[in-house]
Amino acid sequence: MAALCSIRIVRKVPDLAENFMGSAAENIKEKHHGVLISVVQLCTELCKASKEALEYLRKHCVEGLVRILRDVTNSSYAPEYDIAGITDPFLHIRVLRLMRTLGQGDADCSEYVNDILAQVATKTESNKNAGNAILYECVETIMSIEATSGLRVLAINILGRFLSNRDNNIRYVALNMLMRAMAVDTQAVQRHRATILECVKDADVSIRKRALELVYLLINDTNVKPLTKELVDYLEVSDEDFKEDLTAKICSIVEKFSEDKLWYLDQMFKVLSLAGNFVKDDVWHALIVLISNASELQGYSVRSLYKALQAYGAQESLVRVAVWCIGEYGEMVVNNINMLDVEEPVTVTESDAVDAVELALKRYSVDVTTRAMCLVALLKLSSRFPPTSERIQEIVVQNKGNTVLELQQRSIEFNSIIQRHQSIKSSLLERMPVLDEASYLMKRAASSQATVSLTKSATTATPAGSLKIPNGVVKPPAAPLPDLLDLNSDDVPVTTSATTTAPDNFLQDLLGIDLTNSSTAGGAPSATTDILMDLLSIGSFPVQNGPPTTSNFITPGQAVTKHAPATPQVMDLLDGLPSSTPLPDENTAYPSITAFQSATLKITFSFKKQPGKPQETTMHVSFTNLTSVALTDFMFQAAVPKFIQLRLDPASSSILPASGNGSVTQSLSVTNNQHGQKPLAMRIRISYKVNGEDRLEQGQISNFPAGL
Prior knowledge:
This protein has a domain at 593-701: Immunoglobulin-like (Sandwich), CATH 2.60.40. The chain is elongated. The protein is built from 28 helices and 11 strands. The strands form 3 sheets. A 6-stranded antiparallel β-sheet has the order 3-8-9-6-5-4, with no helix packed on it. Helix 8 (129-144) packs parallel to helix 10, helix 12 (193-199) packs antiparallel against helix 13 and helix 18 packs across helix 19. The longest helix is centred in the middle third of the chain and has 24 residues, at 437-460. It is an alpha+beta fold.
């Protein structure tokens, strides 16, 4: 009783710890187990409260603790203390925990307790929970003190036996302890690799995830290929809920040990084929960069991807990579160029290659990015395979009336290139230049570090009472919604050094579409980029190649001023037509336009100008719901080029009534600083919820009346 009261006193007033050190050490010699448990716990609290107490108890208690542990381990049957055939497991565990505290960082104390720890580890039976509890504490003590290498191997072997236990809890704590043991004795943990790998296939999701993390730590240069093969084989039969984690780990392993490029490509193609819908964008972006640099493997890559596309066409990331490769290296799959010894020739005609891209275009009718990539690939194939040009033109033209303005614009532009610009088509549609792999990897690493920093900041700022992810795993914040509407990246304030911002945005150029979410490229685009964009714009304003940034969107009540130097009149290099528009009379009446219409929404713009201020326009926007379900949390955002100032007022409501029974209105004001030289242009994004499910629509408005 006195020992229990002393524990409470020490916890409340740690400065009084020195008053209890002597009596606590003396009472270690007690025989009664109840007293011993209380005294051992008091000693543990004293060690936590005072360094002086810790040093004192190391000198005066270790011998007594060893005696207690030897007595209870070797004692005969005692009915008053027996639990499942083990004498007083509670005392066992209390003594082992105190030994762990005393032996941590002290070589002499650790050496003194090594023998008794080995005795407990070998004599305790593991067929009962009480025995397993003692063994677990014994292992944790061994891994925490300055134990000998043989004793650590013994502890890790006990954990290996735990992995074969039928109890999920025991297996889980064993996996946790093995992860800690990796920092102490990797080689001893490697001996249990096969058992750990079997845990990846366990029915319990917690065990699967923890085992997967441990396998990731076990992989090195010598075992990477067999272990990766096991994981990839399991990927095919794994649960859908587990595929995302498994895919991420496999991709990380393959990228980490990618010195053998052929092996890297083979593994990535398998992952794309089996779980392409779970592959992150930055992973397949990196794959494209590597293929661009590996000229000797480009033929092998495009042929492998073509065959995979025929068998696994439902995997989105596989389709994107395959379509890009067919567009760039289509002649290699048709003519079997750069064949490797491990390959067999494939029979693919020019028409077959076009069929593959056309099928992907039709299959992914909802995904804008994939369809845009398909259109770019078809445009390039029209140059690679001239006999198919007419058929490709027919496919491209089918999207001229597409409700997605991005695809509609591309269809019109690409049709113009195929039909009217034969003289420059071949040079315009040459292969992409080799991408700077080192710069891309540097940018990707910088982006990852920024994400980790944000995660740490969010973790630090989390209140004590908030929800935490179990098992010590910190879940990173969800990636921000890609800013699909950005027109200019160079209007974002430059906050990074020239070294960081120098590399071009490879994937924007690579994919030929302005739909990817990538890292910031701070500087203004080069003259060469502007010329290329003018070539592809067919008279429309040039869309910058910089990354989308949410700071370019204007939300209600926010105003942005974007300053730009006066620029000379831009000439469309394909049509020879100036992009400027004639100045209208101030009293001109501007007709209303239907700026955007989908199966869900209709957006109408009307215009009004103030006399004497031709560069300023007030726009009234009306939103109509075409569905039979009300849209909630309705929000409209807009982005404009850098020469335009935009102010967006709040909407009249955040709920859009169903079936056109009423509308939501919103006003916005724009100032065109290059009025008469460049027309108005705008990209819009509308977010809302349907029955609680988030929805997003976006588009580009390029049909403003002349003179705005």
